[in-house]
Amino acid sequence: MANESLSTRFDLHTHSTFSDGTTSPEQIAELAKNIGLKGFALTDHDTIDGWVTARYAAKVKGLDFLPGMELTTEEAGRSIHLLAYGTSESDERLLEELFLLRNSRLNRAKEMISRLNEDFPLDWDLVLEPEDGVYIKSVGRPHLADALVNAGYFSTRSEVFEKILTTTSRYYVPTKHLGTIEAINVVRNAGGFPVLAHPAAFRMRKPIDHSLIAELVSSGLGGIELDHPENRPEWIPNLVTTATKHGLLVTGASDFHGAGKPNKLGEGSTAAADVALIRSQVATPN
Ligand code: AMP
Ligand code: FE
Ligand code: FE
Ligand code: ZN
After folding, report:
1. Total-model pTM
2. Which residues line ligand 1 (CB under 6 A)?
3. What is the pLDDT of residues 206-240, one digit of tens each?
């Protein structure tokens, strides 16, 4: 199963059970080893809690690990996902923002659950508080979707999203977001390297405009994720031009969510030399 061509490459965007992935960091490391990747980044939503486990699991498998996270942000009326690599683990401002984001996620999940429960009764308490009484680290719509699948209302996470969990659905409740520029500042101040995630995703009506990218670059954006399975291929050439113009590092990754999405680990990837470039600029390089 090992793929020779991946032996010098990293998958820089993965989600684990610390947020909305269905596989643990250990399972991601095992899979990364099996497909022959050199290394991977863990980029759970709004949390760095999976780093310790992922770092150790990578070491056991002889893989390189790059710590990261994904922040949902908003700028000029657009929802923009920002990947942040190598931030300090003790930066107070960043840690406080992450705490507030996760807390908002929890309150939002409770509100969505009370709306969903009217039409889809199930033991929702179990969703937020698993057996050991510990809250999910970073709860999102995917956890609600999985509960609906487990109760037999739908057959897959994606089906639930398409039918009842879009942002226009009556069950949808927004959660706290940072402004994109604000997030870039917080990440840079914490010694991190910010990368614009999937800027040409299928779900967008149009790609992120070039003037907005220019503004993000002047605020400290360092890279742009162009090799991503959900990017529209026809929007990529223009974005490559913009990336070159601004000296942005071009990354690739799968956005693996285990069974939660069709994206396969290693489906997008980044060269080791580019990962080295990121590492040379961050507070927590591995
Ligand atoms: P939230 O951050 O809680 O609003 O949920 C958004 C997350 O749901 C994204 O980060 C994706 O991982 C996931 N997601 C969005 N659309 C879909 C879909 N169609 N199928 C599966 N997962 C999705
Ligand atoms: Fe996700
Ligand atoms: Fe994303
Ligand atoms: Zn993601």
Report:
1. 0.96
2. 20, 45, 72, 140-142, 157-158, 161, 257, 260-261
3. 888 899 999 999 999 999 999 999 999 999 999 99
